[in-house]
Design brief:
By secondary structure, the chain is mainly alpha-helical. It has a domain of 92 residues: Tetratricopeptide repeat domain (Serine Threonine Protein Phosphatase 5, Tetratricopeptide repeat, Alpha Horseshoe). 68% of the residues lie in helices and 0% in strands. It is built from 10 helices and no strands. α3 packs antiparallel against α4, α6 packs antiparallel against α7 and α7 runs antiparallel to α8. The longest helix is centred in the middle third of the chain and has 17 residues.
Length: 197
């Protein structure tokens, strides 16, 4: 097995990249599935992901993201942050880009940089909506709580929950948005069209 790199390569080391082949993605998915369902020792997970990452060109954005994910999942958020930033700089497809932003913000929060995590996630909320909106808001709620804005965080979390349920959808979403806006000191400058019906 190939060792997982300790830090991302410099931009000058990066090669041109294309999307990984389907079988590579399937093998990667199997590794992460096993990591979720069975307890894999941290060094084994890092080594397994490292082997897969080594199959891609140096500086490939997916390799950088997956290396960051492996460091993050094994309790090394500082190292993960560097890989996530490098992956974003290298350019990711939209689905992995948003996952990377969420995981970057989570790692920032975990190392005590909650205000930075909030800024990253608020900026991401202005990007086009997708199926990770509620997850993004859940991590924003955590970051807000750590940054001393627990009431706003509760509002974000309740609104996110409202977006996922059928019964009480309208009420939960409206109450959550109202709480979030009431708690935010800069609400009028950051969210357009956030008025409640």
């Amino acid at each position: 097995m190939t060792a997982l790199p300790q830090q991302p390569p410099t931009p000058s080391d990066a090669a041109e990249h294309s999307a990984p082949a389907g079988s590579w993605e399937e093998r990667l998915a199997a590794v992460w599935y096993q990591a979720r369902t069975a307890r894999i020792p941290d060094d084994e997970l890092r080594a397994t992901v490292g082997t897969l990452v080594a199959e891609l060109p140096v500086g490939h954005p997916v390799a950088l993201y997956e290396a960051g994910s492996a460091w993050d999942s094994t309790g090394s958020p500082e190292q993960a942050i560097a890989f996530y930033r490098a992956a974003l700089d290298a350019g990711l497809a939209p689905d992995r880009r948003r996952q990377t932003v969420i995981q970057l913000a989570s790692s920032l929060r975990n190392v005590g940089r909650a205000d930075e995590a909030v800024a990253v996630l608020r900026a991401e909320r202005r990007e086009p909506s997708d199926d990770l909106d509620a997850q993004l808001d859940a991590f924003l709620a955590l970051a807000l709580a750590d940054a001393g804005s627990a009431r706003e965080g509760v509002g974000v979390a309740v609104a996110a929950l409202g977006s996922l349920v059928q019964r009480y959808h309208r009420s939960l979403t409206a109450y959550g948005e109202e709480m979030e806006l009431d708690a935010r000191p800069d609400a009028s400058s950051d969210d357009e069209g956030a008025d409640l019906p």
